[in-house]
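Example record

The entry below shows one chain as it appears in the dataset: sequence first, then structure tokens.
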Amino acid sequence: MAYTNFTVETDADGIALVTWDMPGKSMNVFTAEVMDELNAIIDATVADAAVKGVVFTSGKSSFSGGADLSMIKSMFSFYQDEKAKDPTAATQKLFNLVGRMTGLFRKLETCGKPWVSAINGTCMGGAFELSLACHGRVASSAKSVKIALPEVKVGIFPGAGGTQRVSRLTDAQSALQMMTTGQSLTAARAKAMNLLHQVVEPDQLIPAAKQMIKDGLKPIAPWDEKGFKVPNGGIWTPAAAQLWPAAPAILRRETSGNYPAALAILKCVYEGLQVPFDTGLKIEQRYFTQVLQTTEAYSMIRSLFISMQELGKGARRPAGQPKAALKKVGVVGAGFMGASIAYVTAAAGIPVTLIDRDIEAAIKGKGVGEGLVKDSIGKGRLTQDEGAALLSRITPSADYSDLKDVDLVIEAVFEDRDVKKAVIEAVEAVLPASAIFASNTSTLPISGLAENSKRPADFIGVHFFSPVEKMMLTEVILGKETGDRAIAVALDYVAAIKKTPIVVNDTRGFFVNRCVFRYIHEAYDMLIGGVPAAMIENAAKMAGMPVGPLALNDEVAIDLSYKILKATVADLGEKAVDPRHMQLVSGLVESEGRLGRKNSKGFYDYPPKPAKKSLWPGLKDLYPQKKADDVDVGVLKQRFLVTIALEAARTMEEGIVTDPREADVGSILGFGFAPYTGGALSYIDGMGAKVFVDLCEKLAAAYGPHFKPTALLKDMAAKGETFYGRFDPYRVEKAA
């Protein structure tokens, strides 16, 4: 039988090599068709007496990334459609649907013939769950091999047998750590955890897998054999008595109870280890069905899985523009930011000319890349040869004429209009007519900078976040005259360096910084209002933020906040800034000399390592302090999330952001807005516009007019609308 996504070849020893190689895709993913074909392959190999065993592998450089977008989408739409007809029946139908993959893998596991998974490259999610159902697992020793069950990061959990098989192969603590964090494992680590049988050289992968079958691999999973014992004795042991009471408390400390899927993993493992394997699978199926019905799962999958992939693949790229082949990029400004941009560009295989005022400064900038390469080599992420090749692509220079053959120039000089004006003019004097000019400004409007350009249609903003090599978001900012070709080239560049872009229109602070400073300014209000600093920081983390606003302000630099407040007053007048904020920040900077982490003192004190940072004791003397018992932590959490979400809504109302996917993805990747909400707009959609507007009114009455809901939100509340309904990002596709 011929298959679309698989080839099956049986050798003289009776071993069938099943190769997964989906046509037209860079990576194998699970679809309904793939599962149908895999089911047929299981039946065919069982029926063929000549087949003694099966080796399952990938024909691509990676094994598989797990489930396909369309399959995930269809699961949610299926449930919503069925729920509208009959809510009770809908849950049962969803339960049956989510059990399909579980049943398929169990069928493979109990088919009576040995299967060996030969893992090359990335093996994630459902693909690793399939491998766990195989009787043998061999992985390549190549550095590209990454093994993980990362579903918790997008609001769900390993629901195709993962929680039951991992916890029966390795100890419960390691199993919980792997699944509740979604961490990636090297092949060596996976073998040490007993999740793999062998790790071999890449060219020995298929021979080693076949040899397992020749050596008499039993076609029975360990848990299906009589007398099977769970590693470390299971639940009712002295060791387990220490683990299980602590596990929920540790999880709550790490997640503040915001992630239903993470808690479901604990329940699946704890309950599943006390019952027969097939009953454990039913328990897992039940919890998976429950989690799929949560707002958190729906919102996280939409933003962190579907929208991120769509934006990364160019959802906002103008139609009809040819793909840019970037042969050379210029970066002007070899400070830490510019040097880091040069590094990520070179890491993507693109040659870079790094320009600064003199060759010494440019060489010093390349040194930033050298430090990053040295760190990567030390951690095994790069070989010596790969590191040398990367650095060879960065050419330091003080001569603007070296930009005469670049396709794109990124300006990353000091945030000063006059300095940037001089750079724009110097670059454009030598820049080829076909090249695009991008500014990495974080505060200055792009349209204003473009006034210094002779070709504003080819002028665009590409705003990176620090540290550039780690932050996955890039804001692409459109000036009033920015043309489609500039947008296309900018998005092609962002795709080449493997970051996620959001496209925003020009405004002070763009999207991310507008939201970030609302977060920080709300903390100022709390501090001024007498809320103890420790409660401010802890409440923010409990709300789901990765770092407290005061710690974040230290990282941004308090003197930068001061400069931004002064610039806002200069441009917009005194009323544009809360005078209490100005007094707080100016006092810290000018009177106390507290600039943030960069001078080791800000809202926190930063002693020499290994000592940890701690809140500056002087904070409690700045304003009269409330007693902790008089502060409602729940309200603090609401204030943080609502003020950010309100700002995101304002950017939509003002037309700064036009696609809700970008507001959601940008808020999570840009500054870590509570990922369990799915992003700032999904937070509003999740509770409903009417509930959100009522909450805003309540907070405005108690804490100030900056919480007043906008006209757009009031209109949406009256009409029962959502952001994804009113600003449907797929409307154009549907119309087509």
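Notes for this example: The longest helix spans residues 87-109. Residues 329-509 form a domain with the Rossmann fold fold (CATH 3.40.50.720).
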